[in-house]
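Protocol step 4 of 6: structure prediction from sequence.
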Amino acid sequence: RVPLLLLQRRNWLHEIVPEKQRSSYFSAESAISNLLNVLVAAAQSLILQGDPDVWRFLIVYGIGIASGFISLPLMRRVPGGVPVPDSSDHSGFAFRSHFAALHDKPYISFIVFAAFCFASLAWFGSAVILYMRDALDISPGLILLLTSFGSVAVMLTIGFWGRYADHAGSPHALALSLCGAALMSL
């Protein structure tokens, strides 16, 4: 069962990537994203070498903001995203589909589980950076270098996870990868 709210929206990715190729697409996308994370973290570590002052941190923020603005016109070139005609009944309560989603127990279980997993990874990521900085007195540049090595480790396993998801299914692959992330955090 899929909540009505989700049926009303169409993901542009489904317009341009055939269903049989989506696992491969997501694996390739993840590999490219991790490679870019490594390159960005390495560049940041070079900028923040030694004992950086506030201006070097502002340079990192400025580069990020400028990159975001530069990417906007490039994003317009991505195909897909054609609006789907809204066939829902607008009479009555405007949030009817939201309540339908809230009454779908498997969907709510999924959302709670996904939110908990995301929050746990975010909390761990923040805590480990603060621990390295404050308790271990590691420089920001070295922290970024270590973070980029972590991204390289993830990048090296992406192909395996894509093939495994094609073979065993995405839910099983996701469960195993989250268990691995939890064990690494522990």
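Step 5 (inspection) to follow. Confidence is low (pLDDT under 50) at residues 1-10.
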